[in-house]
Amino acid sequence: MRFTLLASLVGLGVSGSLVACGDDDANTGGGSDTSSSSQDSSSSSGVGGQSPEDLVPPEPLGGDPATACPAGYASAAPVDGDNQDFEVAGTGRRFLMIAPDATFEGPRPLLVGFNGTGETGKSFSDRAELEDFAARGFVVLAPWSDGNGTIWPVWDAMHDASDPDTNNPDLAFFDSLVACVGAHRPIDKHRIYITGHSAGGIMSNYVLQRRSSLLAGGIVASGVFSLTSPQTPAPLDPMFVIVTWGGDNDEYSGGSGGVSVPSINFVEQASIASNFYEAEPAVSQANCRGDNVGHAWLDPLNDWFVDALLDHPKGLAQKGTTVLADVPANADAACTTAPYPFMSGVVVTCPPTSTVDGCAEVCQFIGDCAVENATVGPILAPELMELGFSGPDNTSCGGCITHCEGVATTMPDAEVLDCMQTEQAAATCGPGIDGALPVIDALNTCCENRSDSPWCVDTCTVFLGSAAESFLTSCSAIVP
User: What is the pTM of this model?
Assistant: First the structure.
């Protein structure tokens, strides 16, 4: 299991809703009634005086419980409240269902909410006050995570190029859960949405990119986008996606799984997600920035979220036509349809020469890909300091060169540093975890089986036990 990198990223320790807190009647597919009561959840906006429900009438998802549900749920519908032993991929899974009041008629919109690190479906639902969605007519499902995942063990939502995401048990759980609930009760197939905060936001990014044919959209809250994309991305179907974060201070610090990490900030990841969805030709994107409320779900916006989602059922989220309602004055947030730009502002400029050929270039490579990276730089700050970087945000590079010169004293070191320069010439650093991978890949390539290089042994020793360990596959083999 490769949990160590992201013990910060996604240690995604859970904080509160605007305040920090700890981690912690059957329908078989028919149903001709698509009417709505006067208390329906539909929003008032639309086109040409027609409401979204006029333009996209509710229609039941349907299905046969005998084939859509696992044993135990084929004949017994999920109940309002705690549901257990929902078997998927050989494991009994658990979920909370919050059903709307019986006065809501016709097929209902559905919201599936993914919990954060150290949470359950119930605790996340409580923290994010997802009952607000049920009060507006949604069926809310809050599944429990099960510690799956090869990079961060909450949801199986992050994969690198060597770790294909096939037979994903959490995606199978989502698929089975939606199909089974839809077979038992009238779920509107045009209004199926997902959400999640922190580690749940990661899972939301993962599912949105793989189930856009089913989903009308969702809310990605303070979630990492890096490493959530399919190995072979395909254009997404029309959806409406809202990206949220708590503001400039949306941070987590602490640790998980035995790894202690410095503070990491989610602003860059929000920008990456916002710009990704904006760039998708069929996806309409909005984003909401909290007024520096920390690593939090923006619960004062819940009613606003309901209206925004219901304004965009499947097929009505036309690219470039989204108009957002005013945000409530008490929301401590601002929302826009313009993609959110972000630049780290951290710049490393190393002295151009060194007494050992390659040290200046390699330190600049590390500075470009790691120090300047707003996601990775804060996470690896102690290790970067150990390599000799110093000053505000580790932007002073001279100590790195001095450190390198003191270690790289042999012919094998010269060969390794030459290899690193070759890799550097072909590399492009960028934002997010992906943007730091060129220097990590270079270390894996150049230090493979190089126990004869004191520079490799020293650099690997610095990073082993850090958040980068799981990505440095060559290091464990050469460090005594």
Answer: 0.88
